[in-house]
Recover the amino acids of this structure.
């Protein structure tokens, strides 16, 4: 069965931890890290495998730190 | 740091769905975390990229938080005196009619000190695009009351809430300029949800396309948050904006193709 699978790459140093992406993600895939970046912000990380690459998070991200990939994979 | 749920095999150019446009300069934005300016900057530059007009676009940055827009937008930019961006845009567009000109202004710039310039540029039917970011507050200087501040809203200069008896009513400048015959496309959008961001991008595209027609101003108001000025977290600020700003500043097109629709 074909399935859509997505992946996000967060530019950790640019993330300001505003959490707007968390509110926009329909699959609760994003959460804030426990670590901080060099500016002291918690940054967005992927916390489960449900991402479909819908790019909602990337659209609302004020700093444009999220890059989205999406592919059809056969399970 | 090890990424637990990463899929490096998916990260190939053919699988790429979304990335930050190259028309934004590769440096960190100076705005507060969660500020809507970043999204509007990105959508504007995506429109410029899609339209392929990067080398013939001239932007005018205002005074306010977005005064540093010229550091982030990778197109030709000029800085105008406070509120005078429409006047400068008028000159540029008249001298360079084949260039795409836009002004990017906040509510303190466009609706307070620049009211006369805005209204007269719209009334003359100039042929450029105005992007108006409305967050109901003077964000850069520390959250003072702006003409667009809601009744009862607390700011640093009206700490007991805006009293309309003394301080006047919030100004809906977008509805005001929609009445003028010189405007061709007037709309109000937001950037707090993915759907709203997509709509804003379409509106910006339409407003820039107005310059091809030469029939008047394309005006896009974006209702945005100012979580630092409102003393909230970004997510709370977006919720507060939905509950309080949108009833006063309803989203949607106000004037399309020169005809009032609302």
């Amino acid at each position: 069965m074909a399935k859509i699978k997505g992946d996000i790459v967060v530019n950790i140093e640019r993330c300001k931890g505003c959490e707007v992406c968390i509110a926009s993600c329909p699959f609760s895939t994003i959460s804030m890290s426990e670590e901080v970046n060099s500016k002291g912000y918690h940054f967005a990380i992927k916390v489960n495998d449900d991402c479909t690459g819908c790019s909602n998070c990337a659209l609302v991200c004020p700093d444009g730190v999220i890059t989205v990939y999406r592919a059809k994979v056969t399970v | 740091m090890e990424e637990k749920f990463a899929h490096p095999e998916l990260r190939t150019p053919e699988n790429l769905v979304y990335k930050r446009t190259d028309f934004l300069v590769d440096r960190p934005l100076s705005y507060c975390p969660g500020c809507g300016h970043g999204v509007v900057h990105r959508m504007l530059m995506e429109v410029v990229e899609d339209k392929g007009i990067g080398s013939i676009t001239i932007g005018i940055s205002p005074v306010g938080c977005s005064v540093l827009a010229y550091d982030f937008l990778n197109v030709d930019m000029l800085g105008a005196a406070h509120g005078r961006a429409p006047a400068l845009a008028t000159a540029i567009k008249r001298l360079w009619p084949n260039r795409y000109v836009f002004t990017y202004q906040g509510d303190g710039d466009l609706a307070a000190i620049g009211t006369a310039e805005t209204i007269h540029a719209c009334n003359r039917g100039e042929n450029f695009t105005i992007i108006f970011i409305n967050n109901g507050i003077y964000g850069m200087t520390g959250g003072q009351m702006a003409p667009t501040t809601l009744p009862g809203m607390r700011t640093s200069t009206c700490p007991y809430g805006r009293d309309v008896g003394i301080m006047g009513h919030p100004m809906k400048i977008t509805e005001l300029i929609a009445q003028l015959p010189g405007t061709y496309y007037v709309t109000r959008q937001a950037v707090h949800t993915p759907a709203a961001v997509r709509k804003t991008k379409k509106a910006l595209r339409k407003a820039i396309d107005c310059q091809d027609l030469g029939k008047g101003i394309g005006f896009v108001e974006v209702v945005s948050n100012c979580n630092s000025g409102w003393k909230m977290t970004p997510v709370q600020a977006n919720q507060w904006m939905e509950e309080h700003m949108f009833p006063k500043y309803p989203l949607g097109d106000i004037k399309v193709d020169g005809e009032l629709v609302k």
